[in-house]
Write a structure and sequence with these properties.
CATH class of the largest domain: Alpha Beta
CATH topology of the largest domain: TIM Barrel
Helix content: 25-40%
Shape: globular
Structural class: alpha/beta
CATH superfamily of the largest domain: Glycosidases
Distance between the termini: 44 Å
Radius of gyration: 22 Å
Number of domains: 2
Strand content: 15-25%
Number of strands: 22
Largest sheet: 8 strands, parallel
Strand order of the largest sheet: 10-9-8-5-4-13-12-11
């Protein structure tokens, strides 16, 4: 089971630092065959992922499937289907054997009244009296696997009724699984968590999301969450833009490898440093050839590529590389050191005194430093490494422009000269 460090910023697993690197596989229980699951687990383990985010109930915008795994008998939510939950547990037991931690969404927003999703599509809203028997089933099925429980999925909290559903869900599950870690997955570009629910969670998730109109969201939301909730808890961007996902709101365009890599680095170096989550269009919905995808559902994403194609998207390797860099680090944002007139360059300092700087495109970086540092630049696309020259100009430290074509990570160590 994961635990939280004494400073409430990071995780431990078996007493050792644990950087939460999750893959988004919302539709695993309904859409993936056993053979496909074998391949998926092997590939993601190889790439460095250590956690899987899965929706317990069917994902409302999953791709169509020929499989017939359903949680309710005859679509009656008061008649839970034992075979569905037994099969889901078998899948998770296999994932645990491969070394994965689990993060399970208890109730996605379309199942709860008053949310942005259930206001669009009212079919499927669950009765309040469903909560207790369902939570009991969730606990009996999954709690011995030590998952993180994600109480809500992609939700907002526009009404007392909505809040009541999620608070009741968290309270009931907390009674049954008091030692487990809890969090809530809120909708994109949103930061509000009801006070009663916030008191029941151990981790804060936010979602910078898939809207291309404000590219500051991965780091500005992190800063906003830290300001609005000063009591320290591990903070994670649990849904940055997904690779090859169409822009939300039916806007033309797709998120590419650079975009998802940038979202991860600026999130982590802005203080959302307990981990980060990767997503690939075609994986979260588990899309197959000639199957339908609900492009008009939710935020109106364009049709995904198949899951086979999505498993080859290069951004997953970038996230694994990030996790390897961050594995033993506890960082503190240090934007106050940056003299460049931009917030897109992100600066942080780790517990050993090393500086980490994310530079999204070529420029000279100017820092206010009272000590001498030596810097290398890592090409985040091809992983080449360059030594950078450093020049002191009064109180400023000026770092030469990196030679690479896209983004770079600078690592600065105190000079030995």
């Amino acid at each position: 089971m994961l635990t939280i460090t004494n400073d409430h910023k990071n995780f431990l697993k078996d007493g050792k630092p644990f950087f939460y690197l999750a893959d988004t596989c919302w539709s695993a229980f309904t859409n993936i065959t056993d053979e496909e699951w074998d391949y998926y687990l092997e590939k993601r383990k190889m790439q460095g992922f250590n956690t899987l985010q899965i929706n317990i109930l069917p994902q409302w915008d999953a791709s169509a499937t020929e499989l017939d795994w359903k949680p309710f008998i005859d679509d009656d939510p008061m008649c839970l289907n034992d075979s569905y939950f037994e099969h889901a547990k078998e899948m998770l037991l296999q994932a645990k054997e491969e070394g994965f931690e689990l993060a399970l969404v208890v109730m996605w927003c379309n199942y709860v009244p008053g949310t942005w999703a259930s206001n669009m599509f009212k079919k499927g809203i669950l009765p309040f009296e469903f909560i207790k028997p369902y939570v009991k089933k969730v606990h009996e099925t999954f709690s011995d696997l030590d998952p993180i429980y994600i109480v809500s999925g992609d939700t907002d909290f526009p009404s007392e009724q909505t809040e009541k559903y999620y608070i009741e869900t968290a309270r009931e599950l907390r009674k049954l699984a008091p030692k487990h870690l809890f969090t809530t997955h809120i909708k994109g570009r949103y930061s509000y968590i009801p006070k009663e629910l916030e008191e029941l969670i151990d981790i804060r998730f936010y979602q910078s999301g898939h809207n291309a109109k404000d590219l500051t969201m991965p780091y500005s939301l992190s800063e906003k969450m830290q300001k609005e909730y000063p009591l320290a808890k591990p903070l994670i961007n649990s849904e940055p833009c997904y690779e090859e996902m169409g822009y939300s709101g039916n806007q033309y365009g797709r998120w590419k490898q650079y975009d998802v890599r940038r979202a991860a680095w600026v999130s982590v170096l802005s203080g959302a440093s307990a981990g980060v989550t990767y997503g690939a269009a075609g994986i979260y919905s588990w899309h197959k050839t000639k199957k339908e995808f609900g492009s008009l559902l939710g935020e109106g994403f364009d049709r995904p590529k198949t899951w086979q194609e999505a498993m080859s998207f290069p951004g997953a390797w970038d996230y694994g590389f990030l996790a390897r860099i961050m594995k033993e680090r506890s960082i503190t944002p240090r934007q106050d050191m940056l003299d460049n007139a931009t917030t897109d360059i992100r600066v942080a300092k780790d517990q050993k005194g090393e500086l980490l700087i994310y530079v999204p495109c070529n420029t000279r970086v100017r820092l206010n430093l009272d000590q001498d540092y030596e810097f290398i630049a890592i090409d985040l696309k091809y992983k080449n490494v360059a030594d950078l020259s450093v020049e002191k100009k009064g109180l400023l430290t000026c770092i030469s422009m990196h030679p690479f074509s896209e983004d770079a990570l600078y690592i600065g160590k105190l000079s030995s000269k």
